[in-house]
From TrEMBL:
InterPro entries: 6-hairpin_glycosidase_sf
Organism: Vesicomyosocius okutanii subsp. Calyptogena okutanii (strain HA)
The protein's name: Uncharacterized protein
Biological process according to GO: carbohydrate metabolic process
Lineage of the species this protein comes from: Bacteria, Pseudomonadati, Pseudomonadota, Gammaproteobacteria, Candidatus Pseudothioglobaceae
Length: 87
């Protein structure tokens, strides 16, 4: 979903879609990433099931896409952290 917003922002030259993608990525990072553990389920703000490798891969790709559009190093640092957790 993040990637779709970022692609739409770029394709239609609409900053609002890009911002939605970035905001969604921030939300995922803030609410589904605790103590360097990624979760895939949250019900009533309570984290449940741990993420699987595909979740890490998709989120890493989303972080890289935001980095490509913003050049903000924090997104690259987040990718590195996710990859290190997978190793």
């Amino acid at each position: 979903m993040v990637q779709s917003f970022l692609n739409a922002g770029e394709a239609f030259n609409e900053e609002k879609y890009t911002k939605l993608g970035i905001n969604l990525d921030n939300y995922l990072h803030t609410h589904f990433n605790k103590n360097n553990q990624l979760y895939r389920v949250s019900i009533d703000s309570k984290l449940g099931t741990l993420a699987v490798f595909e979740d890490y891969a998709y989120l890493s790709n989303a972080y890289l896409s935001v980095f490509d559009q913003t050049n903000d190093k924090k997104w690259l640092d987040r990718v590195i952290t996710l990859v290190n957790v997978m190793n």
